[in-house]
Amino acid sequence: MNTKQFISLVIMMALAIIPSNAQQINVEEPEFIGTYCILTSDSTCDVLPRESGTIKKHQNKLSRWAKIASVAATVGGAVGGIVGINAGSIGALQTGIKTMGTAANIGQIADAADALASAEGMDIVFDGGKSSYSIPKGMREVRLIVKGESNEQDPMGIYRVVRFSTSKKERRIQWMEIKPSLLGSSEAEKGGYVNFTGHKYGNQSYLITIPESELKKGEYGIFFMSIITSTEIPVGTFSVK
Q: pTM of the full predicted structure?
């Protein structure tokens, strides 16, 4: 085998290991980190609206949340918290809490954190019953390009796609721990957590694909889980008609 033949073989092998759904896409990476772009074709895309969710009591546990809220309120009168991923079972919440505003002693913060960690779930709530963006008619699967600080981690472990519970005034999702291996399970489906695939794209982005089988009529959001540490959660949203 001569040098030219060897180079051709290397190129063919490299192309073979690139995901087929990424080979055909010719779209520049988003300009800014944290941008969610939905592909409208292999060469065009739209930027999804970014909405900020807030943390509210889970609708089915008002009595328990009332107790937790009273404990949290002791932390300097200004505690903000949202919980994220933990190593526990599905429905468990991260034991972290971010305190905001006035200072409080360590014991008070620990008590509030323990109370929040023992809760079964908080709701991330968005104003309005619908996203301002609807996917184009005839789109069978949703492909998203998401720009991060890098693309060295498995996107299945750091992003979540959710289907909201909706009313005329708001959209909600109960924050639950859903491990990547559980995405696609009936438990995840009931909780509103949508299965997807993810691959590297460009220098620091990911290509997230939501298959047609996961898309039902409704309201959806995608978010980066490491931002679930504050009182507002930016999420890219879209509607499926």
A: 0.67
